[in-house]
Amino acid sequence: MREEARKLQDEARTLIELAKKDAETIKKESRIEAKEEAHRIKIEGEKELQRWERRISQKEENLDRKREALERKEAGLGSKEQELSRIKEQLGQLEAQQRQELERVSRLSQEEAKELLLRDVEREIQLEVAARIKRGEEQVKEESEKRARHIITTAIQRYAGDHTAESTVSVVPLPSDEMKGRIIGREGRNIRMLETLTGIDLIIDDTPEAVVISGFNPIRREIARMALEKLILDGRIHPARIEEMVEKAQKEMEVRVKEAGERACFEVGITGVHPELVKTLGRLLYRTSYAQNVLQHSIEVALISGAMASELHGDPAMLKRAGLLHDIGKAVDSEVEGPHAQIGAKLAQKYGEPAEIVRAIAGHHGEEEPQTMEAVLVCAADAISAARPGARMESLDNYIKRLDRLEKVANSFNGVEKSYAIQAGREIRIIVKPEAIDDLAAQRLARDIVSRIETELEYPGQIKVTVVRETRAVEYAK
Question: What is the three-class DSSP state of 223?
Fold first, then answer.
């Protein structure tokens, strides 16, 4: 047993020694391999480093070459700058010599020549600006006239009113001349009572079977006519009966006036008008202006104003209201002092009409400058209604005076040779002296004359001003 144990120990020691030898061998081999791998890595690193060093060296060489090229260019630019400075100096000398030569030839200094040139340029610019302004004005005028004609024509076409005007009756027919004595009464008591109650005058003359009623107030005149017709139909004419019939006529007149105002509002299509304004409006049925019935004229102005407002994208209802009420002051102008436009504006303001309506009424005859679209359109519609053919009558004396005044205004301007009012005063043609007025001055003259006419004259519609400048060259062959 001991022997075997000893053998096993010997074998174990032998195996351990062999293992140690193998381990030493493996360790030596690993160390050798590691040294070889490190050597290999070192060689590859050195090769890579050499490659990068070569690339850096090449880039440095390239940079050196570029730097040398840049230095050569900078040197070339320096020489060119010197050359340019020399050329500029030569040009300055040549310019100074040329300026001196020009001053010697023209006998003008530099400042004088500059001033002369600026004056010429300024004159040319003024002519060019004036020509452009003229072209622009003509274009704007043409476009605005075309647009205005379209709006006005459309408004007039949409209103299909009669061209005849109603007039109040001032003559009462009698069944016989015997009735004249009954109207006069014993010692004239009947006629005096009727005149006292109505405030009018009865003219009983040699006119067969007729009595003429004369009075400044159209409402009173109409009441007198109605009362007289009732008395004639009744046959009983005495002071008590006259008083009764006048009272009935006054009540009937109040109803008629109210109904006329309501009909006008309904025809135009407006509501919410104060009852007192409606009654005042109805009184215009018995009021005429240049033989044109004022209530019918107001309805016409309202409808034309509304049509024009529709074309201009305004408020047709507001314009109709302003147009219908624009002449309401004429219903009471015999009782209140002042222009009817101002009276009407105060009435409208008193009864709660909007400020736009009040301003349109106040400015439709130029007492106030129109500031709103409503005022301008009412003013235009009023002129259209008054100026259309057959709307109004005018006395021959007034017509001749207007033509004469129109020609005097034109002749008062310098450079005007002759002037002629034509087309019934709707146009004036002015002949100017061509040596005193040029083309641009003729345009300014036309505008100045228009301004004077608008300021100094009163006229229906519009007046066309035409300035004629003519130059003639005449020679005779002998």
Answer: helix
